[in-house]
Amino acid sequence: MNRLLFVCSLLCVTTFDLFAQATKADPTDAEGWYSVGVTVDLPKKWTLSGDYQARFFNNLSTYYGSYLSIGAEKELHRYLNLITEYRAAFLNDVLTHRLTLGAGSELQVHKKVSLSLRALAQNRIQDFYDTAEITQSSLFWRVRLAARYKITKKCAVQASIEPIMEVGGNSIVDNWRNTLEIGYRFNKKTKLELFYIYRPDFGKAKYNRLYHIAGLNVVFFLDADKKNKSTKKRLPATVK
Predict the structure, then answer these.
(1) Residue 4 above 50 pLDDT?
(2) What are the residues whose beta carbons fall under 8 Å from the beta carbon of 180, sequence distance 6 or more?
C-alpha cells in the first residue's frame, strides 16, 4: 500500500508536465493543488483546522499562488455540523479574502458506506496589488453531495459532485467540482489524501473552460480533548 501511495503521489506531481503549456484563454488546462494541514479536536465538540496550499496552473508549469486557511467546525447534533472558515489567497496579481459559513451532515448507511451533504455560503473579496484597480466582492454558494466507501480500516475512497454558484454571475452555475479522492490513514495522527477534480467552468462571459486538477493533501491530527469525544469522526474543517 505504501508503494502504491508513493507512485500515485509521484504521478500527481509529474503527469501533467507532459502536456503543452496553456494560457488563461485556452479552453482546457491542468492544475496541481498541494497542501499540508493540521486538525485539532477541541473540547465541547469543536474542531479547529489550519491549512497551507500551493497551486500551479498552465499545465503545472506556472506557480499560481499560496492559500492560507483557518477553519472551525462545531458539532451541533449527531447529524449536523456548523462550519466557518477564513482563507487568504496570495496570488500573482491580487490578494483574495474568502469568508465561509455553512453546515454539513453525514449519514452512515452501511458498515462501509456513508453519505454526506454540505451547503456553504462564501463571500470573496479581491484586493488588487495595483492601486488603480478597484476592489471587487463576489458572493457564492455551493452544495456538495458525497459518498464515501471504506476499503480497509485505514483506506477510504470518496466521490462527490458540487455546483458552485455566483450570485449575479454570468451563469447560474459558475463551475462544477466533480471529485474523486482516496485517503490513507497511516496512523492516528497522519493522513494522506490524493484527489482528482473534473471542473467545467462557466464563469467567463465569452468562453467556457475545463480544468483537470490533481493534487494531494497531508493532514496531521491532534487531540486536545481526550475526555470529551465527539459522537462521530469529524473531517478537517478547511474548505478546498
Answers:
(1) no
(2) 157, 158, 159, 195, 196
